[in-house]
Write a structure and sequence with these properties.
- This is CAP domain-containing protein.
- It holds the Pfam family CAP.
- With about 575 residues, the protein is mainly beta.
- The chain has helices at about 25-30, 150-165, 175-190, 225-235, 235-240; strands at about 5-10, 15-20, 100, 105, 130, 145, 170-175, 215-220, 250-255, 270-275, 330, 340, 355, 360-370, 375-380, 385-390, 400-405, 415, 425-430, 435-440, 450-455, 460-465, 475-480, 485-490, 505, 510-520, 525-530, 535-540, 550-555, 560.
- It folds into two domains: about 5-30 and about 95-110 and about 140-275, 3-Layer(aba) Sandwich (Pathogenesis-related Protein p14a), CATH 3.40.33.10; about 330-560, Neuraminidase (6 Propeller).
- It contains five helices and 30 strands.
- The strands form seven sheets. Strands 2, 4, 6, 7, 8, 9 and 10 form a seven-stranded mixed beta sheet that branches. A five-stranded antiparallel beta sheet has the order 5-21-20-19-18, with no helix packed on it. The chain has a four-stranded antiparallel beta sheet with strand order 13-12-11-30, with no helix packed on it.
Length: about 575
């Protein structure tokens, strides 16, 4: 899976900011796959909302030190804030400063067929959501609801005039595809982040294309829509997409904001997204030209997936950090020492080194970058019912432990990861004794006081969150008391996909711990490791979208607890 790389460049016009900079002329060379959005389930607000196991706020402060048993402190929920976001004011200049760009995004070639219904030994639980507590959500900050009819027609006509000059057939227009593009344009403009909707070709509004898929993005400090197309033409990667003969339908989204480069350096004045698709048979509703403006969607109801802040996680040198990478094996020994086994990049792991002490008394420990500061943290699910964060320090060790939940957590079966596609902060998925599946909001360095019920009938003795089928979304693996490993496919939204749950493994009660690994066997590789009752650590590569034959990567782990 190739990742879109941000680079900085001054556009020829001195004004356009685009999803460009790629010199790839082949869709395959330019292919990049990420996670896409899907409609959120309905949230029901109960009359009373007592969150368990997320209690009322307590007082406390955090200081840097080595974690120790019983030293956890709880933040003041009224003053605690999320991850730091540093906004640097732009330097005074005669025009816009250099801007970030991102390459065009192609769908896979060939595109996957529309999914057929899966079969499994049991039906899926009802995809319900119920909000326990929390008010508000991420507002559509800075958007200006002006008519975008003329801008959309300008983009459509400019693309087809260019194709005609090259002897290519024109692309037609579809309002449903335009809705997909408009939704994403509004989404990224609201978050002030230039990024693609990954796996956009799988969205129902893509109408099942079978002959190519592409997406281009551009932003400007004015409302000159024609210059969006001119910039795309000037970028080899985007130019190749504009004149790709496979495409015969497009949809465009244009979003306006109140931003300007002098005071809001990330809130560009105009955001544009175009989706291209190729169909053997044109979908019903295809027209020769846009019929009018695409009405911006009504802001969704508040969701537990809502981000608490807009930020870009940094990339740091972690060579001195307690945990050096997402592919490391991490364990707690019988004395409470935290051990890190560094991934060597070839599916093997280096010798253990002690990364910290004082981690005894835990039911489970989780490796995560909870505050997305670029350094890996430890989230400890304690036997006394508390949930404690040990925030990592780039130079090594951890800050003083910080209590995120002060009661009831020992009864939950939980996992941690980036379940929500529109939120870079990790979240918690957990089941209770009644089999209800809960999604907990990440409140940063503050108490967790908000959760949503996203499923029921999930009976599990162990959970693990990983992109099992390589579609760009985190999935949930649940080990039942019968030893069956069931797959709950994620869609980037609070509730798992509404479908039957395939059994992808048997005999999994033998494993006392599971850990999702990233980059342990090459860049962007995905795998899962399991520790069995005999102290053997096995490794399954998920690069093919499913479990492979396990490989033994460590032995002699009896008495250790594998961190998730």
């Amino acid at each position: 899976m190739l990742a879109c790389v941000l680079s900085f460049a001054v556009p020829a016009s001195g004004n356009a900011i685009t999803s460009g900079g790629s010199d790839a002329t082949s869709p395959i060379a330019a292919a990049a796959r990420e996670a896409s959005s899907a409609p959120a389930a309905t949230i029901e607000q109960p009359a009373t909302a007592a969150v368990t196991p997320a209690p009322a706020p307590q007082q406390g402060t955090a200081q840097q030190s080595t974690p120790a048993e019983g030293a956890a402190k709880t933040p003041d929920a009224g003053t605690a804030v999320g991850p730091d976001v540093t906004n640097t004011a732009p330097a005074v200049a005669d025009g816009p400063p250099p801007v970030a760009t991102i390459g065009p995004l192609y769908g896979p070639d060939p595109l996957p067929a529309a999914p057929a219904p899966e079969t499994a030994p049991e039906a899926a639980p009802e995809p319900t959501q119920r909000e326990d507590t929390g008010v508000g959500g991420a507002a559509a900050m800075g958007l200006v609801p002006d008519d975008n009819t003329a801008a959309i027609r300008t983009v459509f006509n400019a693309i087809n005039n260019y194709r005609a000059s090259l002897g290519l057939a024109p692309v037609k227009y579809h309002a449903t595809v335009a809705g997909l593009a408009q939704d994403w344009s509004d989404n990224i403009a609201t978050r002030e982040v230039i990024e693609h909707r990954a796996s956009f070709w799988t969205d129902p509004r893509a109408l099942n294309p079978n002959n190519g898929a592409g997406e281009v993005i551009a932003v400007r400090w004015d409302r000159d829509a024609a210059q969006l197309v001119e910039w795309w033409k000037s970028s080899p990667g985007h130019d190749a997409m504009l004149k790709d003969p496979r495409f015969n339908v497009m949809g465009a989204g244009i979003t306006y904001t109140d931003g300007n480069w002098q005071t809001t350096p990330n809130r560009y004045t105009m955001w544009g997204v175009v989706n291209f698709f190729g169909y053997t048979t044109l979908p019903a509703g295809t027209t020769d030209a846009p019929g009018g403006a695409v009405t911006p969607p009504t802001p969704p109801a508040p969701s537990v997936c809502d981000l608490i802040a807009k930020h870009q996680p940094p990339t740091l040198d972690l060579s001195s950090a307690a945990i050096r990478g997402p592919g490391d094996l991490v364990a707690v020994d019988s004395a409470g020492a935290l051990l890190d086994f560094p991934a060597l990049g070839n599916g093997q792991f280096g010798p253990a080194r002690t990364a910290g002490t004082g981690f005894g008394g835990t039911k489970e420990v989780f490796v995560t970058d909870w505050d997305r500061d670029g350094v890996f943290d430890i989230l400890a699910q304690k036997l006394d019912g508390t949930l404690v964060l040990h925030a990592g320090i780039q130079a090594g060790s951890f800050k003083a432990p910080l209590t995120l939940g002060s009661g009831g957590w020992q009864a939950m079966t939980m996992t941690v990861g980036t379940w929500c596609a529109n939120n870079r902060l990790p979240q918690i998925l957990a089941t209770d004794s009644a089999g209800k599946l809960w999604l907990y909001n990440n409140a940063g360095m503050a108490l967790i006081v908000r959760r949503t019920e996203v499923g029921s009938g999930v009976s599990a003795v162990r959970l693990s969150m990983v992109d099992y089928n390589a579609d760009g979304f985190e999935d949930l693996l649940a080990v039942g008391s019968d030893g069956k490993l069931r797959l709950y496919r994620g869609a980037g939204t609070p509730a798992p996909r509404a479908e039957v749950r395939p059994v992808v493994g048997i005999g999994w009660t033998d494993y006392t711990g599971l850990r999702a690994l990233r980059g342990a066997k090459g860049l962007n590789s995905t795998a899962i490791a399991g520790l069995d009752a005999n102290g053997v650590v096995e490794y399954w590569d998920l690069g093919t979208g499913g479990l492979t034959t396990p490989v033994t990567v460590a032995t002699g782990w009896t008495g250790r607890k594998l961190a998730q």
